[in-house]
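Annex B, item 7. Sequence and structure tokens for protein A, then protein B.
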Amino acid sequence: MRLIFIGDSITDAGRDRTDPSSLGDGYVSMLAPELTAGGAEVVNLGIAGNRAADLAARWDSDLLPAAPDVLTVYVGVNEVWRRFDSGDPTPTERFESTMRGLLASAVRAGSPQLILMEPYLLPVSDEQREWLPELDEKRAAVARLATGFGAQLVRLHDVLTEAARGRDAADLAPDGVHPLPEASRAIAQAWRDAYRALGH
């Protein structure tokens, strides 16, 4: 059983990209001990800063040859972030279309079980609260993709919004996005629930 995780910095989590066995220090590394104890191989293909278009550029070279049995895709927040900090938006229709093509190619190549992680944001400023409508569009796109592909959907925004209720969101993600260990544990548990729902 080969489990591949691909996405942005939250998956990457500082892994050594020169070492194929490196898992970083985020949610993937938290899940790996129990998964490998059960006989699975865990591979982290996250790259910080990636958007769906970046996944598309490396999908055929990085992802498809890895032949995942379970594929987890976690991307979307950089599409939101770059609109507001760099004036470089990704229309939701393009995001969704790109992701649909990638997932379809993965299914054609090997029919992996799919887990899709929605992007989340824990606003730590008034400016970031203005990002939420854009985030909601990307979340809805991921939900539509999950339905269309029969994937497990991990609703991380709800999970982490609840975890931040009544406290300073910066205690979980100082910049609103990158998780501290407590938030990474919540992400890992949400993924674990989805994995179990697949029958594992």
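Protein B:
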Amino acid sequence: MGENEEVTAAWSWGVEDTAPRMLHVMLRIRDIDASLRFYRDGLGMHLLDRHDVPQGRFSILFLSFAGYRDGPAAIELTYNWDQEEAYSHGSGYGHIAIGVPDIEAAFARLIDHGGAAKTAPKQMIPGTPMLAFVTDPDGYAVELIQTRR
């Protein structure tokens, strides 16, 4: 990749935006393959880019349901090459919310792709969308919300 191509790629979020918008959420991960199995294969996100940065000893992967400019916010998965211990999620992390048309199928698919069941699909209040919770391979909570009525 030449210098001009690298500069152009650095502007992948969009050079014509006129208002603020959500770009991505970053999660630190310990196993790239396990995370791709969950987010890409299980949830159906697309791997937009992977950047390996030897001088910083880390890799970043961007995943989204669309592209950088034409879809909802992306997820940035950061893999620090020398991290040996599991990350602490602290008491401030809540969850990532993902809308899915078929919550039962999405819940089962994520369990089959390395997720752990936390809350099976249920309706909290009569007449509202169903919701469920799973955790990804690194223990991050992902809320699924039924989008199709």
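Comment on protein B: The helical segments are 3-9, 32-42, 103-112.
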